[in-house]
């Protein structure tokens, strides 16, 4: 019988896994064991604290459904998701940010200049820009897939029981031959991440709020380029400095400005915009 104590247990646990030496799996698993054990020794965890952590994770699992991922929300409020986004953003490309839980991979294709508001009230904004590579070459035909909340901070997918169409306020655009995209939509409002579960309890325990600043979500892709998942925020808007999920990056904040009287916006739109947001996307090559 090996003599095992609170200092030798870490190596013993690592050795107990028969992983391929030097593999990525082994590195990640060994790192996790080391950090978990170091944390436990450093804070001299009590049985009560240990059980509290396990019950918290149990509660996260209990409330989770295919539509409600409490563990992803936990990752979001701990800045874990944002950290992974930051690490995996490619230099020279638009920075990545939260995917969030409301993406649908089968949103309808829309023509450039279409209006996404589906008759909803709110400020009509023209969103326009170009998609280029990191050497400023346009990427004609790039796909700009977008989704967002409405002017009350709700995603239509959250209100299907109230008769809303989950495909509203989303669309897939194909950039024109110069890499340009444009459409109109309704200006979204801030909203809260779900806080009626264990993650909400954690936020309250830490005196934190659950609000996210208003934003537009995007996945942008083009052949042979690494696709980006990101968000665009609006300058000076509420919660821009304290997003509950740490999604805001300086480079992702756009200026929202009113359309000037008689201004030539250079594009044709189905609906007359009251405000404009310009945002360019930069994709880096794959690999
Ligand atoms: C969102 O941006 O849609 C979102 C992100 C994290 C948690 C909940 C919602
Ligand atoms: Fe969102």
From TrEMBL:
Which Pfam families does the UniProt entry name for this protein?
Dioxygenase_C, Dioxygenase_N
Q: Does the keyword NADP apply?
A: no
What is the superkingdom listed in this entry's lineage?
Bacteria
Q: Which cofactor does it need?
A: Fe(3+)
Write out the entry's keywords from A to Z.
Answer: Dioxygenase, Iron, Metal-binding, Oxidoreductase
Which Gene Ontology MF annotations are present?
A: catechol 1,2-dioxygenase activity; ferric iron binding
- Domain named Intradiol ring-cleavage dioxygenases: residues: 100-283
Q: Which residues form the Catechol dioxygenase N-terminal domain?
A: 24-90
Q: Name one GO biological process term.
A: catechol-containing compound metabolic process
Cleavable signal peptide:
none
The UniProt family comment states: Belongs to the intradiol ring-cleavage dioxygenase family.
Could you tell me what this protein is called?
Intradiol ring-cleavage dioxygenase
């Amino acid at each position: 019988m090996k003599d095992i104590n609170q200092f030798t247990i870490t190596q013993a646990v690592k050795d107990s896994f028969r992983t391929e030496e030097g593999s990525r799996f082994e590195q990640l698993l060994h790192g996790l064991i080391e950090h978990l054990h170091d944390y436990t020794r450093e804070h001299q965890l009590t049985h009560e604290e240990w059980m509290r952590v396990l019950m918290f994770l149990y509660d996260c699992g209990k409330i989770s459904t295919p539509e409600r991922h409490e563990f992803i929300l936990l990752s979001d409020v701990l800045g874990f998701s944002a950290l992974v986004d930051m690490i995996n953003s490619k230099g020279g490309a638009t920075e990545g940010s939260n995917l969030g839980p409301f993406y649908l991979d089968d949103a309808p294709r829309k023509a450039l200049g279409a209006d996404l508001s589906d008759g909803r009230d709110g400020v009509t904004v023209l969103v326009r820009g170009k998609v280029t590579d990191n050497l400023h070459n346009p990427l004609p035909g790039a796909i700009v897939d977008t989704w967002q909340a409405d002017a009350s901070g709700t995603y239509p997918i959250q209100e299907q029981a109230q008769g809303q169409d989950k495909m509203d306020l989303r669309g897939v655009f194909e950039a024109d031959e110069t890499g340009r995209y444009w459409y109109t939509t309704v200006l979204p409002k801030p909203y809260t991440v779900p806080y009626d579960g264990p993650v909400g309890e954690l936020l309250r325990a830490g005196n934190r709020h659950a609000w996210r600043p208003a934003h537009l979500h995007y996945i942008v892709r083009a052949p042979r380029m690494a696709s980006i998942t990101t968000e665009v925020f609006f300058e000076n808007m509420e919660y821009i400095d304290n997003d509950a999920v740490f999604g805001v990056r300086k480079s992702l904040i756009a200026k929202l400005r009113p359309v000037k009287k008689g201004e030539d916006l250079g594009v044709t739109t189905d609906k007359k915009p009251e405000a404009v947001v310009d945002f360019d996307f930069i994709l880096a090559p794959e690999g």
